[in-house]
Q: What sequence folds into this?
């Protein structure tokens, strides 16, 4: 099926070229990092993880989030989602690749990374994170590719695949739980040392991940004949709404526990982020709260939720809110105050951001190629295609053909 | 350059001779049972521990003097600012014992500064989190590092509740006085974590840790599991505290207050 990614319009090739240019520009900073070391980043003795690891954490959420489409389809036979499943899986592949790349660019001696396999250490959560991320990447490649190939040949999905599908659904929860365990098992970091961190990670993943996926799908619809079923979209938006509410509820639990108990270690990181940090960071943290409130308001009000002109903006606001929380504040708040109850400020350097841009561009490239293949196959077999009236062929709308295409 | 048949045959002969010797060399280096003997003068303990008498050692100058000795013999680079590398340093009471501060602490104690170093915890989080066993606990309790196995993931730095670990963000040799290195201890390369090693290399030849030796009797070092050891004697007699007891790490460095 890879050949489908090779034939495309000028615009398609233009976009690929643009991404390659971004990767090229970013890689100059990476080469600099390889020559001079991580000294080119803003990280320090006290804030020893930074932008790379926080992006990794955020993207594990994106990888896990595909399960919000896959799970209803397979566990609840919610077949409205069936033509969306492949995109959830392909997005997970791109996210896993970005996660692994963010780890590779973060480690000081990348040439030694195989030491994790040569000297396996089951007491280290990082060892397990490596296992679950690679495993999830493999499962999604296997399941996604096999299903799409079967669709293309008008064959039913093979029976032997079922166990892998069910494992991958459970596995999705494991990747973000294990990623949370990286943080929440450390004795000296109060902001992370909380039993609810894994649950909060999952909640935040299940709102931000599907939001990113929906946005990318909306863009995909603009450039291809693919059209999401309306019911699938509205279900997904409801899932996003619930997950965001749960996410902020969990955040409120953190606030209550910290401030009612009045335990200094629990209060200090929150006070730092929202009050004492640099004005830029404090503004960002309050932006997170404001955007979270706006996105929840827009998502729980049916009139706004069902307004598809407004929806992309709602999703953007939600993504910004969750990203500030988990892709920035989580790391900075975890390291500040330091073990000496002092403050060491952190802000990523331009080079650090360039390397991150490179990784994101690689992810975008993988998404582009995989989504191109998937949409081409969907067009070939006539699944979930755009109709003249703007509906999807999966919708039951007046302009839809009387008999929906034969199920493969 | 002349490539005659004669030189070719010569080179081929040398290569053949090399091949004949090579297998033995591989055996010698790859056996995993290098013929290493423990030094007869080495010091041994069931669990090494340190006691710092802060009634005697409590000025920045005195501690910096010890740090200078330590950093010199271990080739620790001197870097200013947030990316510094340090094995032994001084800090205030509030920074050293944040959980054990109160606003009306005896002035004399509050004004002391304290030497900080790796605590060589009995239950070290850094060893727990390291994904390659580059940081490990020796049978004698010392938390040691293999700088050649470390991948530089810095998980141990996040895991250490005492901020005892430093990372080589750049090449450490750029910040070392290369003319004045200690040739008996290796320098590190960039991209690896490092920290105090309780002077394992000195214990192995029967010496005490460098800071203990230079402290004029303000630091004690010995076997915590031996009731007759000097450290146990001091601990029995003097009131001591450890850093962040709530972290459950059981530090092996005690401070006499």
A:
């Amino acid at each position: 099926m890879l050949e489908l990614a090779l034939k495309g319009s000028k615009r398609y090739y233009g976009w690929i070229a643009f991404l390659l240019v971004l990767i090229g520009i970013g890689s100059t900073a990476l080469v600099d990092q390889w020559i001079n070391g991580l000294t080119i980043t803003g990280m320090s003795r006290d804030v020893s993880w930074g932008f790379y690891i926080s992006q990794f954490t955020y993207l594990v959420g994106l990888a896990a989030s595909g399960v919000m489409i896959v799970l209803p389809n397979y566990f609840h036979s919610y077949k409205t989602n069936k033509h969306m499943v492949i995109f959830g899986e392909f997005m997970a592949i791109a996210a896993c690749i970005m996660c692994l790349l963010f780890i590779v660019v973060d480690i000081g001696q990348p040439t030694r990374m195989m030491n994790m396999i040569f000297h396996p250490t089951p007491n280290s959560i990082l060892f397990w994170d490596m296992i679950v991320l690679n495993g999830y990447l493999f499962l999604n490649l296997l399941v996604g590719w096999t299903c799409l190939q079967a669709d293309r040949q008008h064959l039913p999905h093979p029976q032997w695949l079922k166990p892998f599908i069910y494992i991958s659904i459970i596995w999705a929860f494991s990747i973000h739980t294990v990623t949370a365990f990286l943080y929440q098992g450390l004795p000296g970091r109060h902001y992370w040392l909380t039993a609810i961190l894994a649950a909060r990670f999952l909640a935040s993943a299940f709102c931000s991940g599907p939001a990113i996926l929906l946005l990318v799908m909306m863009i995909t619809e603009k450039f291809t004949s693919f059209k999401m079923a309306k019911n699938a979209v509205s279900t997904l938006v409801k899932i996003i709404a619930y997950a965001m509410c749960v996410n902020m509820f969990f955040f409120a639990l953190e606030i209550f526990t910290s401030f009612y108990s009045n335990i200094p270690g629990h209060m200090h990181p929150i006070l730092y982020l929202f009050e004492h940090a640099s004005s830029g960071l404090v503004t960002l943290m309050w932006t997170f709260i404001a955007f979270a409130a706006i996105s929840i308001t827009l998502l729980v009000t049916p009139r706004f939720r069902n307004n598809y002109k407004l929806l992309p903006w709602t999703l953007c606001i939600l993504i910004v809110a969750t990203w500030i929380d988990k892709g920035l504040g989580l790391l900075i708040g975890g390291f500040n105050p330091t073990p000496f109850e002092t403050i060491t400020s952190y802000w990523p350097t331009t080079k650090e951001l360039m390397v991150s841009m490179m990784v994101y561009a690689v992810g975008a490239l993988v998404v582009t190629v995989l989504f191109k293949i998937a949409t081409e196959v969907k067009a070939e077999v006539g699944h979930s295609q755009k109709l003249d009236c703007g509906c999807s062929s999966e919708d039951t709308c007046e302009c839809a053909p009387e008999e929906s295409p034969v199920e493969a | 350059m002349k490539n005659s048949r004669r030189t070719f045959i010569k080179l081929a002969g040398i290569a053949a001779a090399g091949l004949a010797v090579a297998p033995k060399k591989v055996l010698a280096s790859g056996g995993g049972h290098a013929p290493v003997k423990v030094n007869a003068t080495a010091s041994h303990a069931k669990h090494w521990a340190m006691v710092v008498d802060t009634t005697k050692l409590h000025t920045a100058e005195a501690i910096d003097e010890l740090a200078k000795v330590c950093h010199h013999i271990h080739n620790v680079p001197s870097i200013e600012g947030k990316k510094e590398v340090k094995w032994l340093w001084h800090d205030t009471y509030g920074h050293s014992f944040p959980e054990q501060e109160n606003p009306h602490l005896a002035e004399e104690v509050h004004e002391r500064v304290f030497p900080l170093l790796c605590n060589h915890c009995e239950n070290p989080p850094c060893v727990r989190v390291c994904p390659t066993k580059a940081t490990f606990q020796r049978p004698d309790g010392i938390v040691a590092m293999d700088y050649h196995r470390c991948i530089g993931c810095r998980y141990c730095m996040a895991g250490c509740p005492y901020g005892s670990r430093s990372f080589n963000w750049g090449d450490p040799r750029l910040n070392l006085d290369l003319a004045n290195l200690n040739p008996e201890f290796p320098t590190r390369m960039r991209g690896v974590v490092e920290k105090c090693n309780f002077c394992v290399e000195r214990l192995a030849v029967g010496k005490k840790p460098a800071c203990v030796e230079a402290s004029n009797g303000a630091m004690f070092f010995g076997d915590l599991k031996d009731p007759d050891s000097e450290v146990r004697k001091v601990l029995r007699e003097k009131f001591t505290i450890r850093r962040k007891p709530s972290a459950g790490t059981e530090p092996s460095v005690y401070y006499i207050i």
